[in-house]
Structure of N-(5'-phosphoribosyl)anthranilate isomerase:
Amino acid sequence: MRVKICGITRATDALAAEKAGADAIGVVLFSDSPRSVAPEKAAEIFAALGPSTARICVSRTDDPAELDEVLALGPTAVQLYCDLPVPPSVAVIRAVADGMPPAGRYDAILLDRSEGTGRRYDLDEARSLVLRSPVPVLLSGGLTPDNVGEAARAVRPYGVDVSSGVEDSPGIKNTRKMTEFIMACRSISP
């Protein structure tokens, strides 16, 4: 199971997540989230990572000019909440709140009903979508080191995404919590 630590605002937290075994690091751009960083800060965070860690840019933008700034960072994937033209060389993760597959191009779906509030997705509904989806599904929303194992065993997603569940405060990650979260994910049998 893939693990994405999202809402990274500091290179030190990105390195701690990577060391703990995260598969992907997410940075938020062009958002009113307290975890949003400027493109220059995102570039610094990405530059600190090793070559095998995926770099995900998360944005609620619907502005093509802002998307161009996001793409200039060279992300592995972009996580978007609307349909914008993204080059085929960059994977698109589309966030959905209601379980309905989005319109437009996407390579994976992120189930997120919380929109940064930590509200959990209904696990039965999430499992149903995983079984129906033609693309990988990532589960997020309200996940913590204490509940991610139960949620992942019930849903069997391709991966999980966490932000507030491993923080001391918005954007400030807790290394122990990240490590425990990743260990809980790795302990799940295929």
